[in-house]
Amino acid sequence: MISVGARASTTGTRREKRAPKRIEVRFRTIVSPHQLNSRWGRRIYWTVLIAVVTGSTLVFVFPLYWMITGAMKTGEEIAQMPPTLFPAHPTFDAFIEAWDLFDIGVLLKNTAFYALGAWLFSMAVDVAAAYALSKLRPMFGNVVLGAMLATLMIPPMVVIIPLYVTIVDLHLLNNAWGLWFPAAANGFNIFLLKRFFDSIPRELVEAAQIDGAGPLRVLWSVILPISRPILGVVSIFTIVTAFKDFLLPLLVMTDSENMTVSVGLSQTAGAVSQNQIMGGLVISSIPMIIVFFIFQRHIMAGLTAGSIKG
Amino acid sequence: MRVLRRNLTAYGFLCAALACFAVFAWYPMIREFALSFQKTTLVNPPTWVGLDNFLTVVQNPAFGKAWLNTVEFTALALLCGYAVPFVMALVLNELRHARAYLRFVVYLPVMLPPIVAVLLFRWFFDPGPGLFNQLLGFFHLPALAWLDSSSTALISLVIVATWMNMGSATLIYLAALQNIPPELYEAAELDGAGIFKRIRHVTIPQTRLILLLMLMLQVVATMQVFIEPYMLTGGGPEDATMTVAFQMYQFAFTLQDYGAGGALGMMLMIVLLVFAAFQLRLTREDKA
Fold first, then answer.
1. Among the three residues A92, A109, A141, which one is the final residue of a domain in this structure?
2. List of residues 6+ apart from B161 with CB closer than 8 A
3. Under an 8 A CB cutoff, do A83 and B129 touch?
4. Which of A67, A92, A117 is the last residue of a domain?
5. Do the chains contact at B28 and A31, CB–CB below 8 Å?
6. Which chain B residues touch A57 with a CB distance below 8 Å?
7. Does one domain contain both A151 and A275?
8. B46-103: per-residue pLDDT in tens?
9. B-chain residues near A153 (CB < 8 A)
10. Computed from CA positions of residues B122, B128, B133, B138, in that sequence, does the dihedral angle turn out positive or negative?
């Protein structure tokens, strides 16, 4: 492939003064390296690249810029027409006001508590279940697995009313367990974990058993250390899902001192000014943006882990 | 004896998960069925009322409108949320620069809590100082009423939904595209296939399974759309954004009629299951 590309650049009708920089091709896609490095190919490539980069930035980043600068504008400036691209007198007043009006400290504390609890509880429950189904292989194990995976076919919205009625019947309203129990009943986590555990060779488990390790010891000292990648993926998804969840917390956490960030913002947003809303939105986005910066690779790996190899 | 012990330990490890699933996943499915034939008040024990709930649902004036809107919303969301990410992934896969940046940027809205995207766009849709009308004015185009007009409200919701969800679909397609063996493109090129023919005869057949799977997931996801009508329009104006999922919420949690909500939920579930079965058959034929 390299030789083809090299020939392409020398057979150009007119050599440019400065040899154009070759577009490096490490993997073959629809457009061939030969086409890509032809004179027109290069021009089109750079045009498309610039268009896509500016377009994506405008579509996906500019709204966030508008949100942040909106929060730094005063009440009059944010309602001004036409709007200003930069805040004339940037202030952080709206952030401070939003913090008090929405009571974001309490909301964030609640959300973190629910998310961490959901993570710890569902990891303990789902890892144990996946381990039992994968390595201990009980009778009717496949039936149990099938019934767990079948819940993935039922869209969560459809069963939200009976789930709510069940939670009310069990007196779990305004109780963190009302969010943690449903979070642990997650067929997708069990599917991902079990598939990873299945790939761990039997010999490893048997060697540990010969050394006298019981099932719990095998799980703790053999399976879990090997499974760190998948545990990372499942952990992050559980936490992110718990943080983003809206409808169930809206129904279960009804007292204002128990609300999550999303629910709290939705309930108070009608009563405060636009720049204060933006301040609240910025503050409540920060935790997820930080998580994304730190765990970007895990998140992107996890996104494709479940879907591609199906 | 050893078999019994192995089974006992195994179910010991399983029991917590079994309990969670039984109470919070399997039982609600059965309860949904019962709920739709009962009058439930949460105070008094439920009583059986036959098909009354279904009658309440069907006789609601917005019933037909809600289904029509849901289908329209799904179709629009597919157009934007299904085709756009695929094209985006095709282009991203061709680019040799800024790949990490583009992937990061596309996925950024997915990380935000949905309420952030929804409240942010509520401001953009504001007919006065909102960003969208100001942009239209900048290009000397007529202003739109966005959420306040029954003709543009639904498409406005689709715009929000697409913005905040398309990142994950794009990255899933991108991963599928990277799994296509390069030899196929080389062979197609030797046979004289141009770029569009290569897309049609190599890329799409090679990603067909994932395309079908995503179609199902996308339809199921958009059929359940809730937070957008809940926060942005409340189903209005003139029921223009009343979706089935939102009507279900209204029955159960605004009117406290859990039976009617359950009945509507049953209908939605049947529609989605029929769709899923149909889809599964398509996929299976594909494998054979």
1. A92
2. B77, B81, B222, B225, B228
3. yes
4. A92
5. no
6. 105
7. yes
8. 878 888 889 888 888 888 888 998 888 888 888 887 888 999 999 998 888 888 899 9
9. 273, 276
10. negative
**Residue A47 sits in the same domain as residue A128:** no
C-alpha dist (Å) from residue B246 to A110, A160, A241, B261: 26, 12, 21, 10
User: Do residue A87 and residue A136 come from a single domain?
Assistant: no
Choose among A23, A61, A126: nearest Cβ to B96: A23
**ipTM topping 0.95:** no
- pLDDT band, residue A11 (cuts 50/70/90): very low
Cβ pair A132:B13 closer than 8 A: yes
Task: Give the largest Cα separation in chain A, rounded.
Answer: 81
Task: Say if residue A144 is exposed, middle or buried (CB neighbours under 10 Å; 0-12, 13-18, 19+).
Answer: buried
Whole-angstrom distance, CA of residue B194 vs CA of residue A157: 45
Check which CATH number belongs to the domain holding A239 and give it: 1.10.3720.10
Smallest CA–CA separation between B75 and chain A, in Å?
A: 18
Of B16, B115, B163, which is closest to A125 when you measure between CB atoms? B16
> What chain B residue is nearest to A167 in terms of C-alpha separation?
B24
Contact assignment for A262 to B185 by CB distance below 8 Å:
no
Question: pLDDT higher for B81 or B273?
Answer: B273
Q: What is the pTM of this model?
A: 0.86
Q: Report the domain count for chain A.
A: 2
Is residue A46 situated within a structural domain? yes
Give the Cα separation of B35 and B31 in Å (integer).
6
Q: Which range of residues forms the domain containing residue A74?
A: 2-92
- Residue in chain A closest to B19 (alpha carbons) equals A185
Residue of B nearest to A156 (CA): B224
Residue type, A286: I
Cross-chain Cβ contact A168/B213 below 8 Å:
no
Domain boundaries, chain B: 62-287
Q: Which CATH code fits B62-287? A: 1.10.3720.10
CA distance A186 to chain B (A): 8
Strand partners, B39: B47
Would you call B129 and A78 a contact, using CB atoms and an 8 Å cutoff? yes
Residues A103, A87, single domain; the answer is: no
Give residue-wise pLDDT tens across range B125-170. Answer: 988 888 888 888 888 888 888 888 888 888 899 899 889 888 888 9
Count contacts between A and B (CB, < 8 Å): 286
Whether residue B28 and residue A162 make contact (CB cut-off 8 A), yes or no, is yes
In-domain check, residue A24:
yes
List of chain A residues whose C-beta atoms are within 8 Å of the C-beta of residue B90: 30
